[in-house]
Amino acid sequence: MAVVQVNSGDDISQNLKQINEYLRLAVAKQSVAVFLPECFAFMQSSRDQLFQFAERDAGGQIQDFLSSASARYGIWIFAGSLPFRTSDPGRITNTMLVFNQDGNRVARYDKIHLFDVVLSVEEKYLESSYTQPGEEIKVVDTPFGKVGLSICYDLRFPEMYRKLVGLGAEILIVPSAFSNTTGEAHWLPLLQARAIENTCYVVAPAQTGVHPNGRKPHGRSVIIDPWGRVLGNMKEECGLLTADIDLPYLSRIRSSLPSLSHRRPELF
Fold it and tell me: What CATH number belongs to 2-256?
């Protein structure tokens, strides 16, 4: 698996050029799948810009790039998120797309949990003011395992991941542009908790650096195994992180520590 960590700006062409270089590097490292962070192709400097460049479900510049690149390199691409237009001109969806090695779009997931928080007088977020929440969770069946989809703030809602595992997920992905304020305290503990409690691999590509709107994300992309061990992590640099996914190992852990089968949901 290959995880990409970038500092996306508001120039889509430049962002995609950078992503293409990481895709080439991932292929050279014999990765079968590449995981991109939230807002990998576009981090707006204004709300108007976000709506200007939001794509339609039928296609667009970013989707064309993803389809072409996945087919050209023969690799699965889990495209963290990009803005999609909705029937409401004042709202977009924060949407993840999955393309298989033939360039076909095989899944779409719209972020369910929206980041509405006040961290300080200077740092406030109200994602719901311009984003329409998703209504459906999604697990993608791939040649390398069943992958449960989520985005950033979803990480704080363990019931969502339990549902994904109930649908067969073996790998949980969390593409993010996690706030540095919350990331310093919560990023890694939450990711490890989701891995341990669900006996799953967790793959978390992240944004880093400082964005055009002044926001500073946490970075520190990471891959975690079902025992909660960190297989690889990054700091604040842009780059590519790779690690192996071993499903027989996952099966052995689920067999020796079968906590998923010990659940008693009828009592709660």
Answer: 3.60.110.10
Told to judge if 111 belongs to the known catalytic residues of this protein, a careful annotator would answer yes
Angle at 84 between CA 53 and CA 63, to 5 degrees: 75
Residue 215 pLDDT exceeds 90: no
Task: Establish how many alpha carbons lie within 13 A of residue 207's alpha carbon, considering only the half-sphere containing its beta carbon.
Answer: 27
Catalytic residue among 39, 55, 138, 152: 152
Give the model's pLDDT for residue 20: 98
**Virtual CA dihedral for 165, 170, 175, 181, nearest 10 degrees?**
70
- The one catalytic residue among 38, 39, 170, 200: 38
User: Which pLDDT band holds residue 212 (cuts at 50, 70, 90)?
Assistant: confident
Distances 172 to 19, 144, 160 between C-alpha atoms, Å? 22, 13, 11
Strands (E), 156-244: 171-173, 201-204, 222-224, 230-233, 239-242
Distance CA 26, CA 35 (A): 10
The number of C-alpha atoms within 13 Å of 12 and in the hemisphere containing its C-beta is 15
Percent of the chain at pLDDT exceeding 70: 100
Work out the average pLDDT over 58-62.
96
**Domain ranges within the chain, ordered by starting residue:** 2-256
- Residue 40 near residue 82, CB atoms below 8 Å: yes
Active site residue 235: no
Q: Which of 211, 243, 260, 183 is nearest to 29 (CA)?
A: 243
d(CA 64, CA 123): 35
Q: Which of 39, 55, 111, 138 is catalytic?
A: 111
User: Can you give the pLDDT at residue 147?
Assistant: 98
